[in-house]
Amino acid sequence: MSTLDQNLAKLSGYLERFRETGIPNRIGGKDVMGQGGVFDTISPVDKSKICEVAHGTAEDIDAAAMAAAASFPAWRDMPAIERRKILIDVAEAIEARAEEIALCECWDTGQTIRFMSKAALRGAENFRYFADQVVQARDGQHIKSPTLMNITTRLPIGPVGVITPWNTPFMLSTWKIAPALASGCTVVHKPAEASPLSARLLVEIAEEAGLPPGVLNTVNGFGEGAGKALTEHKAIKAIAFVGESRTGSTITKQGADTLKRMHLELGGKNPVIVFDDSDLDRALDAAIFMIYSINGERCTSSSRLLVQDTIRAEFEEKLIARVNNIKVGHPLDPATEIGPLISQEHYDKVASYFDIAKQDGATVAAGGVTVGDAGFFVRPTLFTDANNQMRIAQEEIFGPVLTSIPFSTEEEALEIANDIDYGLTAYVWTNDLTRALRFTDKLEAGMIWVNSENVRHLPTPFGGVKSSGIGRDGGDWSFEFYMEQKHIGFATGQHKIMQLGK
Ligand code: NAD
Hints:
Number of domains: 2
Strand order of the largest sheet: 14-17-18-13-12-20-21
Structural class: alpha/beta
Bound molecules: nicotinamide-adenine-dinucleotide
Number of strands: 24
Distance between the termini: 93 Å
CATH topology of the largest domain: Aldehyde Dehydrogenase, Chain A, domain 1
Strand content: 15-25%
Low-confidence stretches: none
Mean pLDDT: 97
CATH class of the largest domain: Alpha Beta
């Protein structure tokens, strides 16, 4: 039996119960189908129905927000060491069910098993890392002034909403939910409608590992219904959102009446800049990895290649050979490098750029075609002879599609790199240290890697500038978002108090 067949057999076992019962909302530790009926979730691999999912409404969000509010005081006041233990237990429980999570995630999203098996474990790591910070999270500062002992403390902000997209949903959800829980917040999670499976597994695993009922609630549904209601709910004190820049703008408006604190992780159109003095083989490996892994459905993908004209011909030639060699196939086959895109709508959007590129005068140097019609498969694609004004250079395609743009000087490279609405990540390849320092100083991006692909290190800040987001995740930055600072001043001496009405 091939590994693919073994994986399919295991998956079938894991999905059986979902087929029977569907995916309910999880509110206050109870399964609730709600009043909104159900919607079908389908697999992008073969367009088959996976199961029915509760269609969450504003009433379901209200019930979940009330459950999160009711469970907040006990969770907030739990001794940090106990909260830490529960979160470590969740991490271990995720590891124990990592295979199930990875297989379900692949079937639900089209992501490949070679990447999702790692993403499930990264979800566990997110819990473990933030669990270890719990004990210090409330530590404030003592700032003495001449007549006051000034104490600052940090307290969890309250129940929070977490709204996540469909690309690597398990990893992204844990990245938000773990620090929120570690801070002492309770959570209402609204997963993306296209990928509800792993969010269900997460809440189930967390409760089985000891998370009290109501501390994490999951309401499925669509953005304009459940998502909107969550951003508008009075009991919800903050929203951690990951998704498109346009949606980030919409939910900021929706949250305005209740003065929601917002953390927005949004889109990207990230440049990888390759100078002719760099290690070209490593630059090639990294450029390919950062756009064609995870189906190119990744916010940090290096979707614009800026290559110096002195090495352009050689670099593009090698690139074309490699891109044509990438294996598109069944996501549960360990040999597969690219699986199907998430949905018909997204597949249509990505495929539309094949014509847009030609109309704008670029060359389709590799790919540019769809693959069969059984699922939402496209060939990895490379556009050359492009300039930075073309739509393929300015718009987030969010698929395995790379646009190559030549430059001649460092100044020109900088101008092209920054001439974009987005500012999430950038990747710079050069062996000239002075140039690297000068260039990264001027690059408009929240995160930059020099001579490296994106390597996420949890203590470092993650987030974007410009239309790519507001706020940072990681390390203490996550606690800053989910907690409030409180200042308390104690008089230690006497200062002159202004006297009125005396
Ligand atoms: P999306 O914005 O369409 O949806 C994201 C989530 O928001 C979904 O759960 C959706 O139901 C919900 N939503 C939609 N409208 C809403 C509304 N009016 N109110 C409340 N919730 C609403 O994004 P997507 O297509 O699911 O994901 C792809 C996008 O996510 C890309 O732009 C990608 O760059 C971005 N992304 C960013 C990061 C990052 O860290 N910066 C990471 C992953 C993905």
